[in-house]
């Protein structure tokens, strides 16, 4: 990580330390206790901070409660900014528990610097979700959807058919709906980010 940061120094790029779900549901629905989850995230955050990251990003989180554990852990061991994004369905619900609106209200109150969504579905399905989250947001809204919904090809691989220009067009709608920090998740590449920057006049 130190070498990575050294490579981008002076380019105006921030290096984020990435955290995500353990994939284990919290008690009483699964084997993971909240205290154990705190231990897991505190350890990761300390290592990432020692490596020199500029901020933390908890992404593709599956529920509000497990994301609370990330923010809780961060508040205990670091002063680095923490950005959070959950994987939400087109109706705004998380896979484990909670909704996008509940995530924004809860996590910003805990000290998250930005809250939002990533992965799951394409930007063409998220305008209503983004608008509902923006209504309660007091921090920037982070939005990084997939390049549309994938199909499985003859090799058994997921293929995302939305082009960079198509994604950029839909993302412009989401910015108008209230997204403040935008990017892409599954199926995207630097070409998608370049197209998005052009569309938003940032290129």
Secondary structure: elements and pairs:
Blueprint: H1 2-8, E1 16-19, H2 34-51, E2 55-61, H3 64-77, E3 82-86, H4 100-110, E4 114-118, H5 127-136, E5 141-144, E6 151-152, E7 158-159, H6 164-177, E8 181-182, H7 190-199
Parallel strand pairs: 1-2, 2-3, 3-4, 4-5, 5-8
Antiparallel strand pairs: 6-7
Q: Percentage of helical residues?
A: 40-55%
* Largest sheet: number of strands, sense, barrel closure: 6 strands, parallel
What structural class do you assign from the helix and strand content?
A: alpha/beta
The 3D shape can be described as: globular
Strand content: 15-25%
How many helix segments? 7
What is the end-to-end distance?
Answer: 27 Å
H/E topology pattern = HEHEHEHEHEEEHEH
Residue windows where pLDDT falls under 50 for at least 5 positions: none
Rg, nearest Å: 17 Å
Number of strands: 8
- Order of strands, widest sheet: 1-2-3-4-5-8
Mean pLDDT: 93
Question: Can you tell me about this structure?
Answer:
With 203 residues, the protein is an alpha/beta fold. The protein is 41% helix and 15% strand. It is built from 7 helices and 8 strands. The strands form 2 sheets. The protein has a 6-stranded parallel β-sheet with strand order 1-2-3-4-5-8, covered by helices on one side. Strand 4, helix 5 (127-136) and strand 5 (141-144) form a beta-alpha-beta unit. The two termini are 27 Å apart. The model has no long low-confidence stretch (mean pLDDT 93).
